């Protein structure tokens, strides 16, 4: 008994505290492809780490691979943040919503700790 649930209308996003919010400005195809490629690489690295742990590999080698995966994820964070600032935040500021700056600052603080 599979049900298909339609994604909420972006105009209605945020009305329910448990619903996901959606971008008003879609990501470009090139950016979408780049992010998917980077995510797949990070997932592959994490799967490799899992296999190393299952195989009882040397801790130093596991840590090196974890560091590589972490760097890959941080790179994705920076790209998404840059896109967010250039699209979502800029659009909100143009529409007169300066409160979005506080949200952006919170995000920057969160990913740079």
Characterize this entry briefly.
The chain is built from 3 helices and no strands. The protein has helices at 29-54, 59-94, 100-111.
How does this model look, in words?
This protein is mostly helical and 113 residues long. The chain contains three helices and no strands. It has helices spanning 29-54, 59-94, 100-111. Helix 1 runs antiparallel to helix 2 (59-94). The longest helix has 36 residues, at 59-94. The chain is elongated, with a radius of gyration of 18 Å. The model is unreliable at 1-6 (pLDDT under 50).
Annotation keywords:
113 residues, mainly alpha
Helices and strands in order, then pairings?
Elements: H1 29-54, H2 59-94, H3 100-111
Helix pairs in contact: 1-2, 2-3
Termini gap: 44 Å
Q: In terms of quaternary structure, what is this?
A: single chain
| Gross morphology | elongated
Rg over alpha carbons: 18 Å
DSSP strand tally = 0
Series of H and E elements: HHH
Distinct helical segment count: 3
Question: Whole-number average pLDDT?
Answer: 86
Largest sheet: none
Structural class comes to mainly alpha
**Helical residue percent?**
55-70%
Strand content: under 5%
Unreliable sequence segments: 1-6
């Amino acid at each position: 008994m599979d049900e298909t649930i339609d994604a909420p209308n972006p105009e209605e996003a945020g009305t329910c505290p448990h619903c996901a919010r959606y971008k008003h400005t879609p990501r470009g195809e090139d950016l979408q492809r780049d992010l998917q490629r980077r995510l797949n690489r990070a997932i592959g690295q994490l799967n490799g780490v899992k296999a190393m742990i299952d195989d009882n590999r040397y801790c130093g080698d596991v840590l090196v691979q974890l560091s590589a995966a972490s760097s890959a994820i941080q790179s994705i964070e920076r790209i998404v943040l840059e896109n967010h600032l250039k699209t979502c935040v800029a659009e909100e500021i143009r529409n007169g919503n300066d409160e979005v700056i506080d949200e952006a600052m919170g995000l920057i603080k969160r990913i740079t700790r």
